[in-house]
């Protein structure tokens, strides 16, 4: 394994990838991609004899040197590692000196076990007429889409030709080179090009019956035809988010910012695939109340996609920075009090995950060690919220936005197109502050408890103070319910009529933190606030969690319904775990999962199976 990235087999010190070109045919009948990848590499070391690529569950049928399949190269696939896959060791015909270009063509096909791909039957789509395919490569699944140096330390450009059956359309995390497919005989080819360098985890492909609607000067929203109007309405704020991001950082570099609304099994809220963010349909609340996820993914256009973590141990550089800028965007558009509110919601998420992992678990460090660890297993709100809190604290500590905001810009400019570690981040912070403000700021930086923030498990070493103007009412109402457990008070819809959807979520989160509610309270709460009926996914989720904590059986049917109509891990994993924890619910949890296993994305399925102790 490489020194700069413990989660890849690639010999990154010897050779690096510059460009990756895919030529793939999408075969829905056999549910596989078949074709080639052409890698343009550059040697870094002297006497490079071998190129090691990452693969996972791919069938390799030939490796060649150059652009066509004339000169065969010898290769060997190592034994499979259950987490990291199989190293593909390619022998170069003769040893190559430093700074030389090497082109390698690999013929391959994907298999049923490729974690990056979800193949949907027509019945799993909204339209029910056509099959659908989408990929999810972050963190280390690109190696199951194509052989590559699957490490975020490597920044590449890419291009692709995707042969797609009619009447389906292909889209990728790149600029589209043709509006209509190029047809030659039977084949219909969509062509793509990504000219800005990016890490392999941002390669993305979708194929399905897709329709597009323009929602801004550089944005189109794509979805299945039946939901396109709803999508166009929900995400109308997109351009305003991009502009605010540009004000805070640098001009948007990727040309287009399109959105793709996926089928319900998409395992994340959003994924920042360049030029084409992927989002879950659970954002379609009908009132634009969940679009901060879009502000988040837009922010990754700078934090993560331009300035990238070098390995998954510094994942917080992507997500912590993104939370920080996302909240600045929301603050500028909707007011500082909403930013303060969102930060407090974040503290709740952080506390919940630290409780789940255990406050001594090394994975709750901002920079965890990931040698031998699957980044999917390490995933939590820690890099997001501990990362946010570190940056929020630094901003205050160093003199506020007038000092910190120019630093943010300088940081993006300096590391744009590069990958970095936490140490390099910290070095730049010191250098910038010294150069721009002098020794006084260095004294401040030296007072920061770096070990506490970066390398100590549990909650952050400093508790930031946030403005409670939007949270207080939620806290008060939750307290009232907590205090009136035995004698119920006169609850009324008026209690929450002025709450925003977010405040309802916060209220429910507060209720979730006290001891389980008596069933009489839950019944009264539902009667007054009609919570079981709510369609907003965030509220529905929190309400179901409140009910499951109390083993309130009347909610089970609705929990099963929610668990089987969408596969976003943020909801499905905690709900399955909570249902499984109820003595009267564990069998139902396992039966529901087993019956609907095929609905879930492979990444999600694997984690639910762990949560339900169906596998190790
Ligand atoms: N990049 C992440 C999603 C991700 C992380 C995928 C790690 C695979 C591995 C994306 O930007 C994200 O953070 N999504 C959040 C949304 C959010 C507003 C915090 C999600 O999916 O909930
Ligand atoms: Zn993110």
UniProtKB/TrEMBL annotation:
What name does the UniProt record give this protein?
Leukotriene A(4) hydrolase
Q: Peptidase M1 leukotriene A4 hydrolase/aminopeptidase C-terminal domain spans which residues? A: 469-612
Which species is this UniProt entry from? Basidiobolus ranarum
Q: Which family would the database say this protein is a member of?
A: Belongs to the peptidase M1 family.
Lineage start? Eukaryota, Fungi, Fungi incertae sedis, Zoopagomycota, Entomophthoromycotina
- Record's keyword terms, sorted: Aminopeptidase, Cytoplasm, Hydrolase, Metal-binding, Metalloprotease, Protease, Zinc
Q: Which SMART domains match?
A: Leuk-A4-hydro_C (SM01263)
Membrane spanning stretches: none
Keyword Zinc among record annotations: yes
Cofactor binding summary note: Binds 1 zinc ion per subunit.
Q: Which reaction does it catalyse?
A: an epoxide + H2O = an ethanediol
Q: Which cofactor does it need?
A: Zn(2+)
Q: Where in the cell is it found?
A: Cytoplasm
> Matching Gene3D superfamilies, A to Z?
3.30.2010.30, Neutral Protease Domain 2, Peptidase M1, leukotriene A4 hydrolase/aminopeptidase C-terminal domain, tricorn interacting facor f3 domain
- Main localization is cytoplasm
What is a GO molecular function of this protein? aminopeptidase activity
Question: Which CDD domains did the record assign?
Answer: M1_LTA4H
